[in-house]
Amino acid sequence: MDFYERMRELEAKYLASEEPWRQSGFSGPEERWVALRKPVADCIDRSGSFLDIGCANGYLLECILRWTRFAIDPYGIDLSARLVALAQRRLPAAHFTVANAATYRPSRRFDFVRTELCYVPATDEAAYLRHLLTNVVAPTGTLLVCNYAESLPDVANRIIPGAHPTTDLASRLTALNFTATFRDAVDPIKHRRIRIAILHH
């Protein structure tokens, strides 16, 4: 089965839940969602447009609008038409599109773009990041690459087969010839560490 078809199959699991953070792909309680996702909002240092790649039901965008003091124009893309429809109902003022980020060429570019390396096959990671920086992130914009599996021993069981089981985002980006600064956070319950790489042109 195609990598992106496998990713699209996550739709059923997400939609089986009633809690909005679970519909966005998070399996823990809400307080852990906040601890592990709020650092994305903390990376926003000015007003502007924000694109969430793999937006699912739009809950992260909804939270970011609450968590940041800056004015944000929210956008989201996802492979799942059903999840995008749910996101549009959740956040009518936002702009949602069904699209594959690996080939996405928007009519505009964005001040902030959030993604994860596990959204593409391991062999495509470098090309994917170059594509985002060239075609999706604004010239003065910021690419936020999140890794919610820092130092976890069983990453391969948590991602789509074919994605790279990244447990050290800094080392992985260095291997791909990208330079970044980083923001870390720790899960207060399970003491998991997450890392966000901040990349500029």
Summary tags:
201 residues, alpha/beta, Rossmann fold, seven-stranded mixed β-sheet, 8 helices
Provide the spatial order of strands within the biggest beta sheet.
3-2-1-4-5-7-6
Specify the structural class: alpha/beta
Mean of residue pLDDT values: 94
CATH-wise, what's the superfamily? Vaccinia Virus protein VP39
Tell me the overall shape: globular
Sheet of most strands: 7 strands, mixed
Rg over alpha carbons: 16 Å
Which percent range fits the helix content? 25-40%
Structural domains: how many: 1
CATH architecture: 3-Layer(aba) Sandwich
CATH class: Alpha Beta
How do the helices and strands follow one another from N- to C-terminus? HHHHEHEHEEHEHEE
The name CATH uses for the topology is Rossmann fold
Helical run tally: 8
Percentage beta strand: 15-25%
Low-confidence parts: none
Q: In terms of topology, how is this protein built?
A:
Elements: H1 3-8, H2 10-15, H3 20-23, H4 30-42, E1 48-53, H5 59-67, E2 72-78, H6 81-90, E3 95-98, E4 110-115, H7 125-135, E5 137-150, H8 169-175, E6 181-186, E7 193-199
Parallel strand pairs: 1-2, 1-4, 2-3, 4-5
Antiparallel strand pairs: 5-7, 6-7
